[in-house]
Amino acid sequence: MTEPPPRKRFQIHLSTAIVMMFVAGGLIWANVTGRFAYHIERSACYAFGWPLPVMIEYHDLVPSQEKEVPYREVSELAICCNIIVAVIILGFVCFICEEHTRDRATRK
Fold first, then answer.
1. What phi and psi, each to the nearest 5 degrees, are found at residue 46?
2. CA dist., res. 92 & res. 64, Å (int)
3. What pTM did the predictor assign?
4. pLDDT per residue over 12-36, tens digit each?
């Protein structure tokens, strides 16, 4: 039996694409869900982002106004690191799924 010709472009199986969509959804969920944490100098803060907090939102209580005033800090370096981690995770998932599919196809 002859070997099929090499693929001319990058292709993945449908099952790999579906698994990668679920993983990407999990990564998005992890990045937009806020984690509550206390801060020493401020009353409370929420951190958004995974694995590094990209945005930290502080809630200070202003005594003269009797209301909470939010203050946000954004880290561009954390954004870049989180994107790199997400691409690495998606690449690893793609590699594992494609290897599993190739192994299953060779056994048949």
1. -120, 135
2. 53
3. 0.75
4. 899 999 999 999 999 999 999 888 7
